[in-house]
Amino acid sequence: MGRPLAPVDSWSGGNDYENYVGRWSRLVAPRFVAWLSVQPGARWLDVGCGTGALTETVLLDGSPDAIVGIDPSPDFLAVAAAQVPDPRASFRPGNAQAIPLEDATVDVVVSGLVLNFVPDREAALREMRRVTRAGGTVGAYVWDYQGEMQLMKLFWDTAAALDPASRTLHEASRFRFCRPGPLRALFIDAGLLSVEVEPIVVPTVFRDFDDYWTPFLHASAPAPTYARSLGEDQREALRTALQRRLPTRDDGSIHLTAGAWAVRGFNGG
After folding, report:
1. Cα separation of 68 and 26, whole Å?
2. How many C-beta atoms lie closer than 10 Å to residue 237's C-beta?
3. Taking Cα atoms as reference points, which of 134, 123, 113 lies closest to residue 57?
4. Where are the domains of the chain?
5. Which residues share a beta bridge with 95?
6. Which CATH number fits domain 14-267: 3.40.50.150, 3.40.190.10, 3.40.50.1000, 3.40.50.620?
7. How many Å apart are CA 52 and CA 118, to the nearest integer?
8. SS3 label, residue 59
9. Is 107 helix (H, G, I), strand (E, B) or coil?
10. CA Rg, the chain, in Å?
11. For the segment 7-53, what is each residue's pLDDT rounded down to a tens digit?
12. Up-side HSE of residue 209: CA atoms within 13 Å toward CB?
């Protein structure tokens, strides 16, 4: 099978990303924000805000004074700004490893589905701590690629059965740190205190197989990038194998789960 020689993590096409995993991140975000237990009136920063799923949830459920969303993708920022017109929210270009804010300017820093795509996670956590006031909260969540993030795990497991070379692209293999132990260690090593890790599992119900498969043909995330790299015959073989493998109900719907690991810590100053 044809395939990329190395993982390709490009981020464009905000609406396509929303159809791929943004819609499921929106189910995780309320559980995550509630778990953080932040008092109303706080100043928030959303690092890697993407299409605004977590930012919007903070506005709805966290009662912030203000929230800034940063992201390196102009396309994602445009989608976020269009979807989140609340005057308490602002969006600007920014990199997790060099956050464009002054020291100790926010009460809470959050990041959803971003840490595994940051080249230097340690630097990103140090930056998150830098911009957080003493006693403030730093929190993040990532997919449970090795377990309950079924829509991706089933895709990659099926791809590997057809094309063993694709195992090097499997997100469960690439992002082994997305587990409780490594996540806790990452936050502790950044100097954060009282670090906790919590599982969050949400349902991902697809109307039919096309609702599951079509986002893989358009989004810019790793699995869709691999699917589009295949020749037409190879892509059709993958499609057919997936359709046979997925648990399809009599009405055509497909019921899976998406699991995430949430982690939080406090800035001791």
Report:
1. 18
2. 17
3. 113
4. 14-267
5. 98
6. 3.40.50.150
7. 18
8. helix
9. strand
10. 19
11. 545 545 567 777 888 899 999 999 999 999 999 999 999 999 998 99
12. 14
